[in-house]
Amino acid sequence: MSDTPTMEKHSFQTEVKQLLHLMVHSLYSNKEIFLRELISNAADAVDKLRFKSLDNAELIADDPDFRIRITADEAAGTLTISDNGIGMSKADLIANLGTIAKSGTAEFLSQLSGDQKKDANLIGQFGVGFYSGFIVADKMEVVSRAAGTSEACRWISAGEGEFEIESTERGQRGTDIILHLKDSEKEFLNDWRLRSIIAKYSDHISVPVEMLKPAEPAAEGEEPQPATEFEAVNKATALWTRSKTDVTDEEYKEFYKHISHDFAEPLTWAHNKVEGTQEYTSLLYIPKNAPFDLWNRERSRGVKLYVQRVFIMDDAEQFLPVYLRFVRGVLDSNDLPLNVSREILQDSGVTQSLKNACVKRVLGMLEKLAKKDASAYQGFWDQFGNVLKEGLGEDFANQQAIAGLMRFASTEHDTSQQSVSLADYIERMNDAQDKIYYITAESFDTAKNSPHLEVFRKKGIEVLLLSDRIDEWAMSHLNEFDGKPLVSVTQGDLDLGELEDDAEKEQREKVEQESQPLIERFKTVLGERVKDVKVTHRLTDSPACVVSSEGEMSAQMARLMAAAGQAAPDVKPVFEFNPEHPLVTHAAQQEDGAFEDWALLLFDQALLAESGSLNDPGTFTRRLNKLLLKA
Ligand code: ADP
After folding, report:
1. Which of the listed residues 168, 302, 382, 476 has the most CB atoms within 10 Å of its CB?
2. Where along the chain do the CATH 1.20.120.790 domains lie?
């Protein structure tokens, strides 16, 4: 073995290269945030070691006081961020600073257009992190020694595709991040500039962030002495432990960026201290933008968990249900043991009651936002509405609160914007209406133009228009809101109840009587294809439609299941026709042979309007052409 340290070359993972490029190009107007990110990482490293030392006090015996130090070297043009946290081994350095763990990143990044690449908000979807150092540095060096070990390693990169690793010495555990500043970025060596950035971004970090105390001016005839003493330049108290009235909005926003690594500001937050049988503090945030991997079920989620102000773990998912996976924040409990593990959390009664409390807080915070600032709430709904809807089926205890937070497109506006709440709907209901009507379809246009809406439009009754993939499933769990049943206009017998007057009822019964022979003719032709044939009360402009029977799976749901590869029952629709429609009266006058063509055409048309596709479109088209030629 030779004594000279060997340099090992490694390539960055493709994702890292893409992210580095994106970062340097989108964040040039907000360069100073690199310091926030590196201090944030240093504070995390301290938190992790403090936690580990609960079990193994040896790890910090030589230096029990945690700190982060920022030093500038004018002569060398370097800025160094040092911490005495957990440190990194060689393997850690390669894994942590050479790869990005989030799956789907490469794919997402490669789909971005040129303009998007300049959008600073996009970067927030990944978290900026360590690599932000390359906004101001043309070379980064990391010297690190993992706590409890004696070997140290140096990581060096110019941020251009590869990095090098070699063994080195470091007197103590911890990490130095050494930034070789670009010539144009030397302002970040300035003492005053650094102090003001730290005050702006890092006051809430619970670890002291220290800088050299300016040296005393030299006395007459004496050599000036270089500064050697350090002083803390941040407040160094954990933000959530402070009283709400002491914390400014700016501080709350900065703290959010620290815990989420999001570049954008949060939409809203709720900070609560609870004392009594349960003692805890929660500080929960709603982000402004959905992360690119919101739909990846394996993505990490949950809050940062502290016990008695000691950091325990990131991404504690036990305190928030999956349908609130977009929430970020901190939970600090006085009731959990310090040696708590994920397994203990799973079975703890304390966990369950903290989870209930967190859910209430989040839903309450959203209600408040909806009341206070409808346009901000609309922004939330557009980003996260489809996630929140999962709660209808997953959280029955809070179902009514979730339903109250939902926003819908509706025949009131006929635009795809989802802005109508159930409360708005109920307020507009007329005295005779006792149900909330909705339709689910594959697209907004299919919903909006559905023949099922004809009678509702004629009578001026509002119908909610749902067309997101999850809607059919979600709405199947919501039977009522505020005591009013929710009814799908495509399902079951349409009972308009009080909305129909006596004359209308009489007329309807008369038409039903008179149409009996025609019903029988349709049944003979459609046979096994349908469950039943009826005279419709829904249609005014269309000749026919198909509906699902009450209590049976809807056709839309069966299609969704089939598309997801699940065994879906073969649901047969009820065929409803409008005996007054000219196409139907024309069909009724035909001999049996021609009538068969008409009946099948009307049935296929109705299926097409409902689902947008047919099993056998060829036969449908041939039949249509035959009838067109006869006309
Ligand atoms: P993030 O902090 O979002 O995970 P980063 O790219 O900023 O992403 O950092 C990657 C990883 O490198 C961190 O998760 C952490 O494990 C490690 N790391 C970064 N800085 C330090 C540090 N000062 N001390 C110990 N580990 C660090």
Report:
1. 302
2. 503-630
615 pLDDT band, cuts 50/70/90, is confident
Q: Is the Cβ–Cβ distance between 450 and 398 less than 8 Å?
A: no
Domain at 240-383, CATH class: alpha beta
Give dist(CA 282, CA 332) in Å, integer.
Answer: 6
Residue 40 alpha carbon, nearest atom of ligand 1 = 2
Topology of domain 8-233, per CATH? Heat Shock Protein 90 (3.30.565)
Predicted model pTM:
0.80
- pLDDT at position 332 is 95
Which residue ranges does the chain devote to CATH 3.40.50.11260? 406-489
Of 16, 22, 49, 96, the residue with max ligand 1 atoms within 8 A of its CB, to mutate for a pocket test, comes to 96
Q: Is 12 in the pocket of ligand 1 (CB under 6 A)?
A: no
Write out the DSSP string of 191-241: HHHHHHHHHHHHTT-SSPEEEEPPPPPPPTTSPPPPP--EEE-S--S-GGG
CATH topology of domain 406-489: Rossmann fold (3.40.50)
Q: What is the pLDDT of residues 454-513, one digit of tens each?
A: 889 988 999 999 999 899 899 999 999 999 999 999 876 676 766 677 787 888 888 889
Domain with CATH 3.30.230.80 in the chain: 240-383
